[in-house]
Amino acid sequence: MQSSNLTRAVLGTLAEAYPIAINLNALAGEVHCEPEALHRHLRLLHDLGAVHAKGRGALMESAALTEAGLALVRRHPLAFDPGSASPH
User: Model's pTM, two decimal places?
Assistant: First the structure.
């Protein structure tokens, strides 16, 4: 999956669950991505302030959308529809 599509799928899926955090493995299944690749992508979104990653040290266990991430999704709702990034 392209990085831009993965970003849309992740932010859209997290927006649907907001403010609840989603387990990394469950999120990987939702967005059709390997957990390791998703971990790297979520780390970037965390550094940008769109996602709050939870876990111990370098081990990310779950992620939730931040208020800044939610504001981004609300400004561009069609761009972050989780179904629109489906690889099918």
Answer: 0.82
